[in-house]
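User: I'm designing a mutation panel for RADX protein and want to avoid disrupting the core. Could you give me a predicted structure to guide residue selection? Please restate the sequence first so the numbering is unambiguous.

Assistant: Good idea. Sequence first, for numbering, then the predicted structure tokens:
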Amino acid sequence: SKLTSLAQLEMTWRSRVHFHPILVRVMHKSRLRYYGKPEKKLDMPYQAYFEVADGSGMMSMVLWNSLCSEWYNSVKVGTVLLLEQYAIKTSYPFKTEPTPGDSQMKRFATIEISLNVRDPPTKISIIPEEIVKPEWGLPEVKYRFITRSELDGLPNNHSCDVIGLVTFVGRAERARKREYGEDFWLYRWAHAIDGTSDQPFILELFATSQPDVFEHIHPMTYLVCTQMRVVRDLSENPSSAVYLTTSNESQIFITGWHKGQPYTKDTKVKNFIRWTKTQSEAHQMKRTVIGGYYPFPRPPNDFLKY
């Protein structure tokens, strides 16, 4: 009875010090960010963003420092949370924003919920899905799945979710974050097919905060990637070099991790599973490849152009 809504929070936050508890569902989850510096003596300089929603709209929630090590892996997309003794801060203007699956959902972008070990010490409770009641009015997680046949018609930087059967996975490679820096991004290329086109999805998968999944992508696994961005080489032939790359809010799932995920109810996911049941495993196995160097986008055939 003492709950408040995200809409009420936005209207009253400046005039309050203590806030009523809120009940929200996690809609998006960012990768874990490490912001430690040698001169700052913080025990656990970590931060993670989540987008959470109730019946009134969606807002950002930030998990700080040692709360990340305690809660990051437990709080998944679709998890229902009861939050007590949290702080409200003005939104950080430069953070990335996921594309919501439900375009009608209202977004509260001026403030964010801040969860900390102290000032005040936040109390987080995970509500099991089986006791979540419809009258709480919590929105369902929605997705933007596309098929491979739809990809060619999508613009650069379009956000989408994909599911496919992995036919190729390259070795892990590194790219410098900055030209002369010592930090690297870790990534690998993968191909996945879904039966709607002769061409595979070409996926540039950066290591998100899911090392147990990233390291075990292999041919013949069912791969789901959410919040991917379309990349088109607009300077060259536009149809030749279209691929998908991960964003800050991408989540990756492979066979063994799909049970209980909200996307299992999606129509395009069900269509894909139906298609896989019509395929011969031995036939697909012959077409799979693993490892090796994968130069993409491919250099031109003519050396002068290169």
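For picking mutation sites, this is relevant: The chain has two domains: 6-136, 148-305. The first helix runs from residue 6 to 12.
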